[in-house]
Design a protein that fits this description.
Layout (H helix, E strand, L loop, with lengths): L4 H13 L3 H15 L3 H5 L2 E3 L11 H9 L3 E7 L7 E6 L5 E3 L5 E3 L14 E4 L3 E2 L5 E2 L5 H5 L1 H6 L4 E5 L20 E3 L4 E3 L2
Parallel strand pairs: 1-2, 1-6, 6-9, 9-10
Antiparallel strand pairs: 2-3, 4-5, 7-8, 10-11
Helix pairs in contact: 2-4
Length: 195
């Protein structure tokens, strides 16, 4: 029986939410070890990430490691006027945070901290599941699909890199016409590279 996209979302979200806090912590540290070896990180100065929610792989260790390497980090903020779009705001330890409409922490909107997405070097994307060809299944809102559209069309702008637990990998996802595979996904145990 073939699972629908929504079935995949529910199944994988349940799996990752069952991971203990110890497993989550170790996975976050192992993610740093893997991420630190990718060639793109050496050149990148402006890196968008996200704060973990709903069982997503713990990104705090990666953010702190990037700070220790002198990299500037940015977090997504739901655009207040352009429906379905994201802004990226500079993020450091003193950034004031608020909860967005999905109860996810994001930087308080401050125009002086916005960096246009095209000026980012890397965008680390959350995902619910990914398959052996790099297809990514998100939560269904399309925020990252819209953000990454220039890269998918012309390979210009910030490069997308998916971050995930190993348990989020499946053999094959149901794919829609608008889905474009990610070039790279990093998990605690390996780097999936389709370039």
């Amino acid at each position: 029986m073939t699972l629908s996209r929504q079935d995949f979302r529910q199944h994988i979200r349940t799996k990752r939410n069952q991971l203990s806090s110890d497993v989550q912590h170790i996975a976050g540290l192992d993610l740093v070890t893997q991420f630190s070896t990718i060639p793109e990180i050496k050149r990148a100065q402006h890196i968008a990430l996200y704060l973990s929610a709903d069982g997503e792989i713990e990104t705090s260790p990666l953010i702190e490691w990037l700070w220790s390497q002198g990299k500037r980090t940015y977090l997504p903020v739901i655009h207040p006027f352009s429906k379905g779009h994201l802004l990226f705001l500079h993020y450091d330890a003193s950034t004031p945070m608020v909860l967005n409409r999905y109860a996810i922490a994001e930087p308080k909107l401050d125009q002086t901290r916005i960096l246009p997405a095209a000026q980012l070097d890397l965008i680390c994307t959350p995902l619910v599941a990914f398959d052996n060809t790099g297809h990514r299944l998100g939560m269904g809102g399309g925020y990252y699909d819209r953000t990454l559209e220039p890269w998918f069309k012309s390979k210009t702008g910030p490069k997308p890199i998916g971050l995930a637990h190993d348990c989020q990998q499946v053999e094959r996802l149901p794919v829609e016409s608008w889905d474009v595979p990610l070039p790279k996904i990093v998990t605690p145990s390996q780097i999936w590279d389709w370039e």
